Each structure stands twice: as structure tokens, then as C-alpha cells.
Amino acid sequence: MLRSLAAASALTTVIAGGVNGGTDCATCTIAASIMKQDGELSKICKPGSEGETCRILLKAIEEVLKVEKDASPDGVCQILDICTKESGEYCRLYPAPASELKRNHKRDYSHLNSGKGWCNSTIFKPVCDALNNFGNNHTPLEDLDHDGYSTIETFRGTSWKGKDCDEEFASVHPGAASTDNCNGINVDYFDYCPDSSPRMGFAALGDSATAHFHLPACFFTPDNLNFSLAEFAAENEFDWPQYSWGTAFKNITDAMHPTIAGPTDSIYMRLKEVNRCNHRDYQNVGVNGARSTSMQKITETAFVRDVGAPRMLVTLALIGNDVCNGHPDTIAHMTTPERFVEANTATLRYLDSVLPKGSSLLSMGLVDGRILFDNMAQRIHPMSSVDKVVTYEDVYTYLNCLEISPCTGWMNSNETLRNATTARAQQLNQAWSQALPNLTFENLTAVYADYPLPEVVAEWNKRGGQTWQLIEPVDGFHPSQIAHALSAEQIWKIMQKANLSHPGFLPSHNPMNSEIERIFGDQGGY
After folding, report:
1. Quick one: which of 48, 73, 134, 138 has the most CB atoms within 10 Å?
2. Can you point out the beta strands (E) in 23-106?
3. Is the pLDDT of residue 305 over 70?
């Protein structure tokens, strides 16, 4: 019960805020769009009292569509007073039929709008309060020995960090200083992890791209709806770190289709290939919305490493949010170069105070987000797969009107603004790339590199792929599964280059790998 309720509550956390009805308006419009294209949404609502709010909204949309047959999805939600206008015109995703513009809306539909937020209701409030720990501190919801590791897959559990093999003792967990480190190798074979090939854990710190934010297209496509993994997705904040460029640890099976599909590769998988003693020693500390100014606090609460534990390889990849926000005056809310350097320095100083000596860190810069509009603007969005009316440019404009866009600067038809956003991103990269080499650390070697997006695009194009396939199809903003796998390949090349100039940046090969695999197989899996 807790997990199913928490999943619904997590969804409302993801879709919160805005003006002119904000995310409530956007949610209603998407639902109305799918229903108007004959998509069946009733299956998304859970049975009993848990799904009551969901059923009320869908019933309201259905009743309006029966009477107002010519209404657009926007018009339906305006009639229900879910989409409002604080000034000027309504925000529109669809072109308005002439009859809709003339409608005086004399019919009263107010009885269909419950207007009650989930977290304010009796049944959900305790769950929302419980979720504060994992939602704000980004720590596992279930962690019996409070060591920062869990045995459940979602809620910042094993999708995010290696599986705890003993929930009674806090000293036993992946990456522990002792031989009880959950890597599946019996203590009698301790010499199979020799000092000449020391273990090295991995941690990916960053934003939603690091966490691998992914809204499945099958949740939005009217002619191919599939909600079989909706609860699982919500429990993981709509992130898929288990398939990300940093911490993917398994292939995507047919059971995950059509929710998510594609190749997998990761820095963690490559570290384990170098040394199988690194099994399960991974942490994904990617957080939706993270930017440089929030990263130190996130790291302090979500990152864990014992005193005396093996050294770590860490990536810090904040590739967009320092220039991305939903404000109409977006440039005024972008991080300045001075603050960017200050915030990143503070995060690295904290990491230096807790990381084992000999650790390595790769800090990567912001991307050029003009790739989004250039490659997506004129394509049809999945939620309009039947009527083929709505383009990504329409979606970008609609989200900006509601002030809920993840990136007003780049997801915008204004080319001047897109260029200005890239210019600020480049200023941040230049400032940090010049500052980092002048910093000294006691326990870590830190290097800077540009995020290898151009190399990812070039490699994909070389293989015959189209650039738009590297972008998430629903939000039109995040890297796709293909992009994640290719990013791992390119980032590993950067690390190999760093290892040449900084020997020991990467671990050495363990000659006992084949014996470990022969004796221990999958080492207990994940």
C-alpha cells in the first residue's frame, strides 16, 4: 500500500507549479488529447479509493467531450476551469476551432472539478510526509541499518546504489572498507582482489541527465498506450539510473518494452570489466533539477563512503540547469560564471574531505542545447500520433506559456534567446575549466572536460542514425537511451586520456577476473 500510494504522490511532485493552470492544466490537456484521439486512459487509475482523484478527472473530461464535441483538448480544460488565464489569452497546445473561440461557456461544469490536491487529502498526506526523506534528501526510503544502501529496487534503492547484502549491520554494504562489501566474492578468496589491482568504486553526481530522466512514450501515445510500468517509473522519480551512462548495470530486457528500450553501456560496467572486485560498488547521485548551487547539499545527504574504503572514480556532470529554468525572464535566473565556480569549488572541497586518498574526479561542462530546437521543432509529438497536429515547437511554446518549461532558453522559437543561452553556458564552461586546474586537493585528482555531445552525435550519425533519435521523445529535452550508451563510450575515452596524463586516474586490470567469474559466476547479481 505504501509503495503504490507513494508512486502516485511522486508523480504529483514531478508535475507541480506554473501559471495559467500550470502543470494541472498541462496534465488535463494531455489527458484530453489522448481521449479525443480515442486513447483508453481508464486503466491508468488504480482501483478503489487510491484511484478516485484520477477517475474524477477522466470522468470530467469525458462528460465535457460528450457535450462539447467540437472542443479542442485545450478548450475542454478551459471549460473545466483547470486551464485558466491570469492575463491575456489562454495558453494553447492545439489550434482553436472557430466555434470554440465564440463559445460563451454558459453550461456549468464546476461540479466536475474536484480541485483537491493529492498531498492535502487524508489518504495521501502521510505518504507525502514519508516521501520527504527520499524526495528531498535523495536517500533510500527503506534502509533498515541506515548505511545508505537498500534492498528494494526503487525509491533510491538498488536502481541507484549497489544492493545491500546485510540490512542488520551498517558496516556491511557495497564498497565497504572490510571484506564484507557485497561484491559476491567469498572472504576465503580475498587475495583475488590484490593490492596490485585495488578496487575502485564509482559515483555519478549530477542532474536529471545523470539520473536518466525518461517519460515513456507509451504513456502518451494514443494509439499505443501501455501503463504496465507506470507505478515502477513513478517510484523511481521517472528516472532510470539502472540504464544510464554512469551506472547502468544490466541490459534492457523484453519485459521492459515498450516502456524503455535500447542499448546499455556505462562507466560502472567498464570499471567492473577492469576489476570484478568492483561488483555493486556504484552510486548514482543524479537529481532532477540539480544545478551547481544545489550540488554540495545533495552530495552531503546522498553520497556515502566509509573511512578507509577503497578509492572512487567520480563524475560531476551538470549539463544544463545552470542556464535552464522555466522563468519568462530566463537569463536573469541563470547562474553567473562567478557563482558557478564558487559552487563547484564548494562541492569538490566537500568531496575531497570525504573521499579516500587516490580518488579521481571528472567534471564535465554544459552542453549546447540548441540541438533540441534545431532537431525537434518540426517533428510531431507522440501525444499527437493520431491527429498529427502538435509539433515539438507547439509543446515548447505551450510549456513556456504555462511557465513550466524545463528550459525556456533552449526550448524556444526565439533564436536570439537560444543563442544567448548557449553563450552563457559557454561562459560557465570557460570559467570553470580555467579555475579547476588551479585548485589543489588532498585526496582526489580532478580534471575538466567538455561533455562529449558533439562526439556522441558524430558517432551516431556515422552509424546511420539521425540526431533527433538522441533526444527523449516525450519531453524533447533529455538524452535518449541511445545517447546514454554512446555517452558512456565517449566519456570512457576521456577518462582513458586523463589516465595518460594522470597515471592512476583509472584502476589497473585485475588478472584474477577470469577466476572470479569461473568460481562466483554473476557474484550474486543485483
Report:
1. 73
2. none
3. yes
Greatest alpha-carbon span in the chain? 80
Task: Tell whether pTM > 0.85.
Answer: yes
**In the prediction, which pLDDT does 99 show?**
64
Distances in Å between the Cα of 367 and the Cα atoms of 372, 460, 477 are: 11, 17, 12
Q: What angle do CA 423, 436, 495 make, to 5 degrees?
A: 95
- Triad 335, 468, 375: Cα angle to 5°: 65
**386/55 Cα distance (integer angstroms):** 24
Catalytic, out of 208, 244, 385, 405: 208
Helix (H, G, I), strand (E, B) or coil at 359: strand
Dist CA 345 CA 347 (whole Å): 5
Calculate what percentage of the chain has a pLDDT beyond 70: 88
Tens digits of residue pLDDT in 231-266: 888 889 899 999 999 999 999 998 899 999 999 999
In angstroms and rounded to an integer, the radius of gyration of the C-alpha atoms of the chain is 24
* Cβ-Cβ contacts under 8 Å for 308 (sequence gap 6 or more): 177, 356
What are the tens digits of pLDDT across the range 352-370? Answer: 999 999 999 999 999 999 9
Q: List the beta bridge partners of residue 316.
A: 205, 363
> Mean of the per-residue pLDDT values for the chain?
88
Is 508 catalytic? The answer is no
The number of helix segments (H) and strand segments (E) in the chain equals: 17, 5
Cα 491 from Cα 520, distance rounded (Å): 30
pLDDT category, 180, cuts 50, 70, 90?
A: confident
**Which 3 state secondary structure label does DSSP give 409?**
coil
* For helices 22-36 and 52-67, angle between their N-to-C axes, nearest 10 degrees: 60
Total residue count of the chain as it appears in this document: 526
Q: Which amino acid is at 243?
A: Y
* Spatial contact of 507 and 197, defined as CB atoms under 8 Å apart: yes
DSSP string, 170-237: TT-STT-SSS-SSSS--GGGGGGS-TTS---EEEEEESHHHHTB---GGGT-GGG---TTHHHHHHTT
3-state secondary structure of 444: strand
